[in-house]
Amino acid sequence: MLTMFMLSVFLLALLQASPNRPTIVSQPSDPPRRNFEVIYYDNMFLFAARNYGTAADAGGNTTAGLFIHSKEQSRWILVSAISTAGGRFGTSASNDPEARKKLSMLPVVWDFTEYAQRPYIEQPLRTSGSISFPDVIEYDASAERYILRYFSRLRVPSAETILYISRADLVTAFAQAVKR
User: Which residues, 6+ apart, have CB-to-CB distance to 80 below 8 Å?
Assistant: First the structure.
């Protein structure tokens, strides 16, 4: 008889072994109306990050999240997790003296390296005292996917986390959002 723990371990292993798992976990959403900024947009999709805001805001705090808008569907989704497949996972620790000096000036620390062994990483990324959204998003037309770079502005390769979202998975996510 399988215990709940054994079943969870089995399902996690199955997800990790599946090369065809979706690159995002998402749900339909209302648009982020405040405390957000546009990170990237192209002819199909717009990526936006909503922060917590402050309690002093007219409407109070907001829930942080990574949102994507489909121009074709005129709908929004909230991305709760991104696949770790093919990703690179950074840390605020470094053996390089110059990188270590630069990273030691930051008020937060992070280590996302453990996510290389997991199927997904939650969004937004969480450091020791903040949340992080991609600082750069690029579309790779040859692979038909978006490249999301976190902490890339630091120019410390070991600190950067890189994730990928398939454009086809976004189309599917929006098609499923319509059915719900």
Answer: 25, 26, 27, 65, 122, 123
The phi, psi pair for 34, rounded to 5°, reads -155, 165
Say what the pTM is: 0.86
For the chain, how many helices (H) and strands (E)? 3, 11
Cβ-count burial of 52 within 10 angstroms (0-12 exposed, 13-18 middle, 19+ buried)?
middle
The residue extents of the domains of the chain are 24-179
CB 135 within 8 A of CB 149: yes
- pLDDT (tens, 9 = 90+) of the chain, 180 residues, equals 444 444 444 445 544 445 689 999 999 999 998 889 999 999 999 999 998 877 777 777 778 899 999 999 999 999 999 999 999 999 999 999 999 999 999 999 999 999 999 999 999 999 999 999 999 999 999 999 999 999 999 999 999 999 999 999 999 999 987 765
